[in-house]
Amino acid sequence: MTKIALITGGSRGLGKSTALHLAEKGRDIILTYHSQKEEAEKVVKAIAAKGQKAVSIQLDIIKPDGFGQFSSTVKQILEDVWDRQNFDILINNAGTGVHNDYMKTTEAEFDRMMSEHVKAPYFLSQNLLPIMNDGGRILNFSTGLTRVTAPGFSAYAIMKGAVEILSVYMAKELGARGITVNTIAPGAIETDFGGGVMRDNDDLNQHFAKLTALGRVGMPDDIGGAVAAILDDKAGWINAQRIEVSGGQSI
Asked: How far is CA 93 from CA 80, 83, 214, 229, in A?
């Protein structure tokens, strides 16, 4: 039976690349978007062109009171599109970034990072686990910035540190259901994340390129391909791990 992956923030960047790489591996996809419906539908069409089924759903990850209804919507879509009641893979990817000096970071920026990167994966996963198959897979997105520091990323990075601890606890408590939980930690990647700071700021881009053994910053497909490998059926013994995908950054 074809496995179904649910990816938050799948309309662009790393989520989009992840969706396309998983589709190439024969996975069907449910992806969420916040506001970019047209971009999400383009991804759906691209997945269909690869011979897989895909559906996009709107989701605002900073509103946990809507997660119950979202779970009900996913359940209905599973029944309508796949004639199933459960999915197999959950990828908590959605979220924005803040690049601001520690002394200038505002409480509003801090709270948004907390909502997007800690509360969302915590409570969204809670709501979706009842409709996930036993033996399923969860992958939470973190960052290379939990291992090395870069000025301006404090609020974002500490939330991702929490995600890494959350993943270990989830792995422990969900092990009885045969569900694995891991964290992927990308290094510096050229996307529109954080306002495109790594893509558009040449000085910052070159700074991180010089810190990386392979001599460049990453591209979305570097991460999408890694996700597909981590979630391969033959990689199911990987559990409770932080897997950094950074090209050898700051080693």
From this structure: 25, 26, 25, 16
Contact 110, 154 (CB under 8 A): no
Note the pTM of the prediction, 2 decimals.
0.96
Would you say 154 and 105 are in contact if contact means Cβ atoms under 8 Å apart? yes
| 156 is annotated as an active-site residue | yes
* Residues 6 or more apart in contact with residue 190 via CB below 8 angstroms: 198, 199, 205, 217, 218, 219, 220
CATH number, domain at 141?
Answer: 3.40.50.720
Its domain, for residue 61, covers 4-188+223-245
The whole-angstrom separation of Cα 175 and Cα 184 is: 19
CA 214 – CA 28 distance, rounded (Å)? 33
Give me the catalytic one of 33, 102, 156, 169. Answer: 156
User: What digits encode the pLDDT tens for the residues 92-138?
Assistant: 999 999 989 999 999 999 999 999 999 999 999 999 999 999 999 99
Backbone angles phi, psi at 92, to 5 degrees: -90, 95
